[in-house]
Amino acid sequence: TPPESIRNFCIIAHIDHGKSTLADRMLQITGVVADRDMRAQYLDRMDIERERGITIKSQAVRMPWAGEAGTVALNMIDTPGHVDFTYEVSRSLAACEGAILLVDAAQGIEAQTLANLYLALENDLTIIPVLNKIDLPAADPDKFAAELANLIGGSPDDVLRVSGKTGQGVEALLDRIVAEIPAPKGDAKAPARAMIFDSVYDAYRGVVTYVRMIDGHLHPRERIQMMSTRATHELLEIGVSSPEPKPSTGLGVGEVGYLITGVKDVRQSKVGDTVTTARTPATQALPGYTDPKPMVYSGLYPIDGSDYPDLREALDKLKLSDAALVYEPETSVALGFGFRCGFLGLLHLEIVSERLSREFGLDLITTAPSVIYEVTTDAGAQITVTNPSEYPDGKIASVTEPMVKAAILLPKDYVGTVMELCQTRRGTLLGMEYLSEERVELRYNIPLGEIVFDFFDQLKSKTQGYASLDYEPSGDQASDLVKVDILLQGDKVDAFSSIVHRDKAYAYGVLMTERLKKLIPRQQFEVPIQAAIGARIIARESIRAMRKDVLAKCYGGDISRKRKLLEKQKEGKKRMKMVGRVEVPQDAFIAALSGD
Ligand code: GTP
């Protein structure tokens, strides 16, 4: 297809604003999916995505659209909608010339949409503002059209109104894409350059790499080269998805499609990398490539220690489809053998642990998420800490922690409450803006460590679910941080160590000691529970020694009941961990680590 007859676009939308439904309607209206084959959320392949209603992996689909200017190939590139995947979003946007800004006509714009809109503007994309769900009785398109026009300029009349559900306005939207989004430009004679915007592991075909051709042409059977590593592969298959994969005789300037080389690991086909031909390689890679960098670390431990080899195998497999996942073995006094894993963010962590339990049947304990601290000791040693229990005990010269710029969108009535929340989380207000009469954007510089600790849930509950949050890294900052250890009968329980601001150390110590007192059953002896900074005890509770015999509960005769109780106790013992002389039920660890 010549570039003049191609339009590459994506849809920017907040979760639940109806991106998948609109995509479904487009597939149907352009005829690439027959009505009888239509199923909801056609493009979301992974079960986990469909169940949770979130899109994790982007995909591209090609749809022919016959308009006034003849038939045009529309390439719709799907973008993930969550903060953890900003880099993937930015690469998807870089593969497009235009974006549909899709906003629920009953909700208005959200923080996530705003963040992705800014990314799209940075990439010079043409924006088509669209209000969705106008069939809803609660829709207020006039109000939100004004909000959108206010945000991106232009008149409220330019804002298209559609319903992905009924199909109303969708044809007009397709016509507008053709009319307004520029055709791709590139040098057909130059050495091939294709940008990877997604790479997906497929159990049968190996890695499927989605690319946008910038210059030149790629053909099946030729050798291609990844410009970041210079690794070469044979191009076994090249084609387009519409939406099922269709092999073709090659891809030229402006086209969007997929490549298969037989590699089995997405790390060999990285998002953002440039693909060229091995025979006449391009000299300059496309701009914008970076390696995914983990932001949040957590320890994953099998509840049943004998599952450790299975956990290793499962992580090795997951890695093939998840270029951002990193892990290394780790041991914990309290939890045994496990892995310290790095994630892009909390959702990424949640997805990985859910896949480990769902696809691999593993029961895991996840330790409290930690960010990356850079510690300089008095002796001048530089230590990177991703596990609080490894925080150096001696004198510290300085510590830095990662900061983020957070944007929170909320109804104006909640501004006070949310500012208070941000203040207690050590946030610094950067700015406040009214998007409309009722909706406000708050911008904060805030430690990532405070956000990974339950911030989002707090924000939601304090605003009845009306606030939305987005953030991006804003560098490291020196802070007055200390490590609080938790001791059981004088022994450190490494899984409970935490790095907190000095002003919050006492509160954390009290919280954890009180919580553990409730969770750990009485033993034959008294067990002190202490919180300490170095050698200084800052909080203390104790569990009194056990007096009662378990069997005392069974009044006399009933032997079978007694036996049952003994067996149950034995069963429970199996899931006990010893910390020094203290028996701690596995459940207590889980509860203490997950409580709020
Ligand atoms: P994520 O994949 O989570 O980002 O969500 P999404 O933006 O793809 O939203 P999705 O298409 O899954 O729609 C979210 C909900 O809104 C679903 O319950 C849809 O049925 C509903 N919905 C989507 N479009 C419309 C619409 O035009 N009208 C009405 N009434 N409901 C819609």
Category by helix and strand content: alpha+beta
- Rounded mean pLDDT is 87
What is the CA-CA span between the terminal residues? 56 Å
Question: Which overall shape is indicated by the principal axes computed on the Cα atoms?
Answer: globular
Q: Pick out the low-confidence regions.
A: 46-58
Sheet bearing the most strands, described? Answer: 8 strands, antiparallel
The percentage helix is: 25-40%
Strand order of the biggest β-sheet: 10-9-14-7-8-13-11-12
Count of alpha and pi helical runs:
14
Main location: membrane
Protein name: Elongation factor 4
Binding site for GTP: 16-21, 132-135
Family: Belongs to the GTP-binding elongation factor family. LepA subfamily. Belongs to the TRAFAC class translation factor GTPase superfamily. Classic translation factor GTPase family. LepA subfamily.
